[in-house]
Design brief:
five-stranded mixed β-sheet; five-stranded antiparallel β-sheet; alpha+beta; 21% strand
Length: 407
């Protein structure tokens, strides 16, 4: 996939980016410093339009949390229950991806290694092959073929020993905390092939098809120090980011969450390490991280709790950090054009303007991202609807809010 980053960087260079700030809500009683004077005419117009939307009959039975922030003026312009702790659904991916880009950087790569321990006798390896997982969700049959070709280039044609799956990167839990058994949940193994936990089985099949002579058994274990590296299959984080946000792929989100967890230097990593990393960024943004719960990276868990305010803080943080923003912004779904917003907001000023992450689980619908107002100001927003019987009704309300912000 090609990214028009040069154009984005040129655009960013021409934009006056605001200085880094404390991200706490300026409406707070404890934070009374305002960066700029308010514009009463604009504020009254926008507030009146959004207040009118809060009279929607949908909100008689649905809990709403919402916040809108003017990135150009660096001030909040609207809030409604912005500090209510609510389930973010896939808007959780905003926190995961911003934390990952901040901690790991856009040049980070996922790695899947092939190494061996043993002796070579001509073209025969007598020993063990280790397939070492780095939780790369993009691994496909073509990856296994490339690994087999690396073995052939190393002069190996016959293997006598074991093919071992090294999954020591993370704990042994294959599911997230609180995930429902009847959902379409991803498998949380750091060594997957086509999203399935069958890596060494599939690799043996590929080796046989490519003419290798095999006298092997399959197993699991940790690769010892000193093993000889045969292949390093690397995948840029930006490829994972794009599918994670555009298509709201839960496996891709969890893989990124565990990469963040690995940054805590714990082995094997667990979900609590990922939560710790996200909360560290929350604290750096000037918030107390204690009220928030980050049980996974995708938003599938019923134990995830964020607020519209903190999601807006993540959006602000990304916007104010040029090494993060162009990649994050480019990977968000675009209204009416692609990803999970392809069939929403297909007309009006919202079309092609709103770049936002959607979120949907039973009873919850969320939307958070960016748009440009008619006065040219850049806005970011978070809209949480909880208790919706029909997700389509909540999405229609969110689209009306976006229309109000853009027109």
């Amino acid at each position: 996939m090609k990214y028009p980053f040069l154009l984005l960087w040129a655009w960013l260079a021409a934009m006056p980016l605001p200085a880094q700030t404390d991200y706490r809500n300026e409406f707070s009683v404890s934070d009374t410093i305002f960066v700029q004077e308010t514009n009463p005419a604009t504020d009254n117009w926008l507030s009146a339009r959004l207040d009118n939307l809060t009279e929607d009959p949908l909100l008689h039975s649905v809990q709403l949390g919402m916040m809108v922030y003017d990135l150009t003026d660096r001030r909040p312009v609207y809030s409604w229950n912005e500090r209510y702790r609510m389930r973010p659904a896939s808007v959780e991916k905003v926190a995961t991806s911003v934390t990952a880009l901040d901690m790991l950087g856009p040049q980070f790569k996922y790695h899947t290694y092939l190494r061996y321990v043993g002796t070579l006798h001509g073209d025969t390896l007598r020993g063990n092959l280790y397939c070492i997982g780095g939780f790369d969700p993009t691994v496909r049959q073509s990856t296994l073929v490339a690994m087999a070709d690396s073995l052939r280039r190393a002069g190996i044609r016959r293997i006598e020993g074991r093919i071992v799956a090294d999954k020591s990167m993370k704990d042994t839990l294959m599911y997230g905390s609180g995930w429902c058994w009847d959902d379409d949940n991803p498998t949380l193994s750091p060594l997957l092939i086509d999203k399935k936990d069958r890596f060494v089985q599939e690799f043996r099949t590929v080796l046989a098809k490519r003419g290798f002579t095999l006298d092997v058994t399959l197993g699991e274990g940790r690769c010892p120090h000193g093993a000889v590296e045969v292949a390093d299959m690397a995948t840029p984080i930006l490829l994972v980011l794009d599918r994670m946000l555009k298509e709201s792929d839960n496996l891709y989100a969890e893989s990124m969450f565990y990469q963040v967890a690995a940054g805590q230097h714990a082995t094997p990593v667990k979900a609590a390490d990922g939560e710790k990393a996200v909360k560290q960024l929350i604290q750096r943004m000037g918030y107390n991280p204690a009220p928030y719960s980050i049980a996974d990276g995708s938003g599938l868990s019923p134990y995830d709790f964020l607020t519209p305010e903190i999601v807006v803080a993540f959006l602000r943080y990304a916007y104010e950090h040029p090494p993060i923003y162009p990649y994050f912004y480019q990977s968000l779904p675009i209204a009416g054009r692609d990803g999970t917003l392809q069939n929403r907001m297909k007309k009006g000023r919202e079309y092609g303007n709103v770049h936002a992450k959607t979120g949907t689980v039973t009873g919850v619908s969320t939307l958070a991202g960016y748009c440009r107002a008619a006065n040219g100001h850049e806005l970011c927003f978070a809209i949480f609807c909880q208790g919706a019987q029909k997700a389509s009704d909540a999405r229609a309300f969110q689209d009306k809010v976006c229309a109000a912000l853009c027109r």
